[in-house]
Amino acid sequence: MDIDAIHKALANPVRRQILQWLKEPEQHFAQQEHPLEFGVCAGLIDRSLGLSQSTVSAHLATLQKAGLISARKVGQWSFFKRNEVTIQAFLEHMQQGL
Question: Is residue 25 a contact partner of residue 37, using CB atoms and an 8 Å limit?
Fold first, then answer.
């Protein structure tokens, strides 16, 4: 677990918003055609944020590099979901470390 990469990822409000939405995808992305077990399609995240695809891709890459989300490719689409194991380990680290 790269604590510094996680802190960097969490320092941005857009990335925190993405993580919050991915925590309850059925509430925020119910219109997705593919099963939410795949994760959430990057295109839906783009539309929800109202930012350019390249900006959202950069945010998703930062979250993925930090290990906070995982990606799955299905055909031409990329789906993202939270990595709960890493998130929980980070939270435990923060409780013990401070």
Answer: no
